[in-house]
Structures are given as structure tokens and as C-alpha cells.
Design a protein that fits this description.
Structural class: alpha+beta
CATH topology of one domain: Beta-Lactamase
Strand content: 15-25%
Number of strands: 9
CATH superfamily of one domain: PAS domain
Distance between the termini: 67 Å
CATH class of one domain: Alpha Beta
Helix content: 40-55%
Shape: rod-shaped
Length: 382
């Protein structure tokens, strides 16, 4: 692997590590934001549903005194038991006008009148209901029941009877609340989801709020006395925040990807110009030196480590050049000495053999003459 490849790989690893760390921090922050936002949205939706329930309960409670504190009711219905008056003013009139079930009963438990769909057993009403409306469950339905003693208009005379109204939290009321809250409301008290919600994960029964595929789900429990679970509703509202965050995160990731790409390109360019280019010049110079060429151009003008390396390399090349010249001189001198007889200072037999070999290889015509000199050592050659 070349130096450039290693550096590019190192740059990619560093940039990738930084990207992973940043993405993890971003992911953690986004998740925390989504959880907090979902919890806040769930709390708002739950509060709004609680408000509608309390408002309906208060409105329901306020209707009862209009009838229970009524002298004519006490006289005509409780005392006289006027059935015609009861039919025209209490039952079935109240049920038909307001949708309330009616129960008029004496203190001894005698029923004066009762609606056919009265949710409780004959004559039954909770004592706590005397202070306001309570929630009760009858079969699969949730009812609001309110009870008060029958008195005169001033409230200072009692007729020994109690008047109760009951109203169901039915599908019609839930549909009205759905329109107000902008969400779907279903009764999940039985643990069964509607068919269109059947794809929800099993943890929906245990979570008070969660998000799934662009929807926020919030559970709401109606608790009676003493702490009995009467009804459980599941509210579903379109939750656009995750989609917006996803688009935002996608844009951020795109920008980061482009940014990291530009960063890698810049790192590669800088490293190419600042490091690899002068290193390649030194590499080419070393190849020239290895081939015996010592005329080099090196980046010796830089004030960094590469410039210092170039200066030392240039000095080394200069020293090698001088050494090479010296070696050549010494070689030529040695060659001359090897072909000269040191005693008489004239070419010797080795010179003759080398010269003959050259002539034969070059195919040059020549003649060889032998001369025999007696007493040659006595000759002095200048």
C-alpha cells in the first residue's frame, strides 16, 4: 500500500470516527427530544380528555338541582304519586329531552319511577354520589350517576326521597370528543383493539403513551371507588413531529455527508501538495542517485521537516558525487599502475594482453613483434 493510500485511509478513518461520534450524539439528542416532546404531547392530550370528561360531569351535575330542588316534584310525584305529572315532567320526559335515565326512590327503597335502562339495581345508588356525580360501570358501559334528596324550592324541606340521573359515556359522546380533540378514541377495556389498530405491538397494554408510524397513542383510565378500574380508553392522534425531525435529520446528514466529503477532498489535496509531492521528488531523486546521476532539483526552500530532509539529502548527494569522482580518479590511477611495470616504468605484459584483447574484439588488423634484449635490466629509461 502506498503512502498516499495509507494517508487517505487514515483520513477516512478519522473522518468516519468523528462522523460516528457526531451521529451518535445527534441520535441521542434527537431521541431525547422526541421522547420529551411525545410525553408533553401525551400529557396535553390526556389533560384535554380529562377536561372534557370533567366538563361533561359538571354539566351533568348542574342539571339535577333544577329537578331535585322543586316543590312541585316533591308534592306531585313523591307525596301524591301523580303518574300523569311524572310522565309529563320526569320520566320519560327527561330521558327523551336530555338522554338521562331517571330514578325516583323513597328513603325506604320504594321506587316511584325508573327508566327502563337504569344502569343500577332497583333502588341502588352510591352514598358518595350525594356530593356529586360518580362514574359507575354497568355491563360494558360506563355511566355517570348523580343523586340528590328531593326538597322544596328553597331547599329547607325534604320529602324523604332521592332523585338520580344517569348518563352513559357512549359512542356518540366519544365521537363528539374525537372531533373536539382531533383524535380517535376507542374503548379498550376488554383488551381487544379495533381491526384497523390490530398491528399495534403488544406493549400497548402496558404503556401510558407511545408513538408508532406517525401516530401518538395515549391511554386514559377512568377509576372508580375504591380504586377500581372502570374503563380504559386509547386515544390516537396524528403525530407529525417525528416526520419533521426525520426530514430535518435527513437534511443534516446530507449536509454532513457533503461536508465530510469536502473535508476529505481538502485533506487529500493538502496532503498531496504539502507532503506527497515533495516526498515523490525525493523518491525520484533517490532513483537518479541510484542510477549515478547527481544533478538534482530538490525542494530545499521549505521551512519544515521535509525541507530539512531535502537539505540533508542534497548534502548527501553532493558528498556522494565527490566520493564518486574520487573513486573514479583512484580507479583510473589503479588501472594505470596495474599496466605499468614499477621497475622500468613501461607497459607490462598485462597491458599487452588487455590491448591485444581489445584489438581482437574490435577486429582491428595488427602485427605483433617480439624483441629480445640482452642485459635489459642495465638499461635506464627516462
Amino acid at each position: 500500500m502506498t503512502v498516499k493510500s495509507k494517508v487517505v485511509l487514515l483520513s477516512v478513518l478519522i473522518a468516519s470516527s468523528l462522523a460516528v461520534v457526531f451521529f451518535l450524539l445527534l441520535f441521542q439528542r434527537v431521541n431525547a427530544f422526541l421522547r420529551e416532546n411525545a410525553l408533553q404531547e401525551a400529557a396535553r392530550l390526556r389533560s384535554a380528555f380529562q377536561f372534557l370528561l370533567a366538563e361533561e360531569k359538571e354539566r351533568f351535575e348542574n342539571h339535577l338541582p333544577d329537578y331535585s330542588m322543586w316543590t312541585e316534584l316533591g308534592e306531585r310525584a313523591v307525596v301524591e304519586r301523580d303518574e300523569d305529572w311524572i310522565e309529563e315532567n320526569l320520566e320519560p320526559w327527561v330521558r327523551e329531552q336530555f338522554g338521562y335515565s331517571v330514578l325516583l326512590v323513597t328513603e325506604s327503597g320504594e321506587i316511584i319511577t325508573s327508566s327502563p335502562n337504569w344502569p343500577l339495581r332497583s333502588g341502588e345508588f352510591p352514598p358518595s354520589s350525594l356530593s356529586g356525580a360518580v362514574f359507575l360501570r354497568s355491563g360494558e358501559e360506563l355511566w355517570m350517576v348523580v343523586t340528590a334528596p328531593v326538597t322544596n324550592d328553597e331547599g329547607d324541606k325534604e320529602y324523604g326521597a332521592f332523585l338520580s340521573f344517569a348518563k352513559p359515556i357512549d359512542a356518540e359522546l366519544l365521537e363528539a370528543w374525537s372531533q373536539i380533540l382531533g383524535c380517535d378514541i376507542v374503548d379498550v377495556s376488554s383488551g381487544v383493539l379495533p381491526p384497523e389498530w390490530s398491528e399495534l405491538p403488544s406493549y400497548w397494554q402496558h404503556k401510558s403513551a407511545f408513538t408508532k408510524e406517525g401516530y401518538l397513542y395515549v391511554s386514559f383510565e377512568v377509576v372508580g371507588e375504591p380504586g377500581e378500574l372502570l374503563k380504559k380508553f386509547l386515544l390516537r392522534r396524528r403525530y407529525e413531529i417525528p416526520l419533521q425531525v426525520s426530514r430535518w435529520a435527513g437534511n443534516v446528514l446530507l449536509c454532513l455527508g457533503v461536508g465530510f466529503g469536502l473535508l476529505l477532498f481538502l485533506l487529500n489535496y493538502v496532503f498531496e501538495r504539502v507532503v506527497l509531492h515533495p516526498l515523490r521528488a525525493l523518491y525520484r531523486a533517490s532513483e537518479q542517485v541510484a542510477s549515478g546521476e547527481y544533478s538534482l532539483q530538490l525542494p530545499v526552500g521549505r521551512n519544515d521537516e521535509i525541507g530539512l530532509l531535502s537539505v540533508h539529502f542534497a548534502r548527501m548527494v553532493e558528498a556522494l558525487s565527490e566520493r564518486e569522482k574520487e573513486l573514479q580518479r583512484e580507479k583510473k590511477k589503479a588501472e594505470r599502475l596495474a599496466q605499468i611495470d614499477p621497475l622500468v616504468g613501461i607497459p607490462n605484459r598485462r597491458y599487452l594482453e588487455d590491448r591485444l584483447k581489445e584489438l581482437i574484439e574490435d577486429k582491428v588488423p595488427f602485427s605483433l613483434v617480439f624483441v629480445d634484449l640482452d642485459k635489459f635490466k642495465k638499461l635506464t629509461i627516462f
